[in-house]
Design a protein that fits this description.
This protein is of the alpha/beta class. The strands form 3 sheets. Strands 1, 2, 3, 9 and 10 form a 5-stranded parallel β-sheet that branches. A 3-stranded parallel β-sheet has the order 4-5-6, with helices on one face. Strands 7-8 form a two-stranded antiparallel ribbon. Helix 3 packs across helix 4. The chain is globular.
Length: 285
């Protein structure tokens, strides 16, 4: 039985969605080539519409970290998200991990993506999330580049150890990674049990009992901090195509897709949620 830390009821937590197609995930990057993306069935509009409807049920607002690749092909979707009162933020152009770039190519990726997102949404883009939480100790220049490009915040660090990502030595809560700048990094929330940390968003939320994420939200709220939660639109789509991939990848991607919408509806109803730009102090548009 998990203990139930007493939350601070005034704290609004950060609700976020990483907007990408079902085939643009790290689990499939070795079996689906980027050159083939355009030929695959797009499901991002329908899946994101389902997420927007779910949020509308409770009035929750969120930040949608969106790929430039998606914005270029589905500008009306990006506009719809913004017009519903949600924040549009950057998830990079085509899900390339930051630690595979250098500072120059990262800057170019940021510019191309921001242009597509702002053109589609009609709003300023000031937030960023690295694909696969790929800002870590291999990218000491990344936060500086973001600050130089006038981003206000990033939510790109997962302070855990994981086979695909993670920066266990990073702070667990919001920190200022660039000296002399107001730029903020807001790591995604993990549950802490002594010296052990467990991730609580995305596939972890889908596969593990919802009580673990509830515990993590209450745990960080009890310390006066907002939780930062994330998931993907494809996670509410049990009818998506099946890919021949390694068994571990298939289990991670396809397990419990049919349970995700119900679990999300419960989580959104049990805690206070809002846009991440509001948490860092930027007035909502």
């Amino acid at each position: 039985m998990l203990p139930d830390p007493a939350p601070k009821p005034s704290i609004v937590n950060g609700l976020s969605v990483d907007v990408e197609e079902w085939f643009q995930v790290g689990a499939f990057e070795k079996v689906i080539a980027k050159a083939d993306w355009a030929s695959l069935a797009s499901r991002v509009e329908a899946n994101t519409a389902a997420v927007l409807d779910l949020f509308a049920e409770t009035g929750a607002k969120a930040t949608f970290f969106t790929l430039g690749w998606v914005a270029e092909r589905h500008p009306a979707l990006v506009r719809r998200i913004a017009e519903a009162g949600h924040e549009i933020a950057s998830h990079g152009w085509d899900h390339q991990r930051v630690f595979t770039m250098d500072a120059s190519s990262f800057r170019a990726d940021l510019l191309r993506t921001r242009t597509a997102l702002e053109d589609a949404s009609g709003t300023a883009v000031t937030g960023y999330r690295a694909p696969s939480f790929s800002i870590d100790n291999r990218t000491p220049w990344a936060h500086r580049v973001l600050a130089e490009e006038s981003y206000l915040y990033s939510s790109s660090v997962a302070p855990i150890r994981h086979d695909h990502y993670g920066w266990r030595e990073a702070p667990r809560f919001a920190f200022n990674p660039v000296a002399g700048s107001g730029f903020i990094e807001l790591p995604v929330t993990v549950a802490e049990f002594g010296s052990r940390r467990l991730a609580t968003g995305g596939g972890f939320f889908r596969l593990l009992p919802a009580k673990l994420t509830d515990f993590a939200v209450r745990q960080v709220n009890a310390q006066g901090e907002p939780a930062i939660f994330y998931f993907h639109p494809w996670e509410v789509d049990p009818g998506q195509p099946r890919v021949r991939a390694p068994i571990r990848s298939r289990l991670r991607h396809y397990s419990r897709l049919d349970a995700m919408a119900g679990k999300l509806r419960g989580l959104v109803g049990r805690h206070a949620w809002g846009r991440i730009d509001a948490i860092v102090g930027k007035p909502a548009a």
